[in-house]
């Protein structure tokens, strides 16, 4: 991020009255490392409550959680590759809801997107939506760094048509990269406020978080939440 971008992000933050509390309230405090233990998750939950984040996001095998209080529980589905059969993703989502998940972040089949098979993407999202109906919140991870602008737009439209609540940039595990300002802006423009936009993957600084919010992100996926919030004011 260049000094010019940092200055612009700070200026936009001031214009929208961004504070520690307001940013924390849209954060999914995330722990998705493969070796994470129950003790790690307990520490994550305690930190989320201390920081005032919206939710914690953990792997489905670590559910159910205890001691979350007002903090919502999110989990992932078809993670991180997305290369799972739709019925497998649906079954995983249903199990997670039974285990107490309030929100499901599902990964699309990336190969379907890169080969233009968006009707099939809509169908797999719809299968997960049926398995995890409202009021469960469904976020659709499109792995935006691996897609063209046209594919990003088509993936967002498929998610909306299938009944998703959010579109989300990235898993954070794809070699193409994580969230970008350009992708968030394009996704926000495409869904037009009808769906939320979650920026996730590689957001490690206050400045990066502010840029994502200014670009249109309405939720942030962060693993280093405390570090990001330290750069903000009350």
TrEMBL record:
Does the record bear Ribonucleoprotein in its keywords? no
Enzyme Commission code(s) on record: 4.1.2.4
- Give the signal peptide, or none: none
Q: Which InterPro entries match?
A: Aldolase_TIM, DeoC, DeoC/FbaB/LacD_aldolase, DeoC_typeI
Pathway participation:
Carbohydrate degradation; 2-deoxy-D-ribose 1-phosphate degradation; D-glyceraldehyde 3-phosphate and acetaldehyde from 2-deoxy-alpha-D-ribose 1-phosphate: step 2/2
Q: Where are the catalytic residues? A: 105 (proton donor/acceptor), 168 (schiff-base intermediate with acetaldehyde), 198 (proton donor/acceptor)
List keywords of the entry alphabetically: Cytoplasm, Lyase, Schiff base
Family stated for the protein in its record: Belongs to the DeoC/FbaB aldolase family. DeoC type 1 subfamily.
| NCBIfam families for the chain | deoC
- UniProt protein name: Deoxyribose-phosphate aldolase
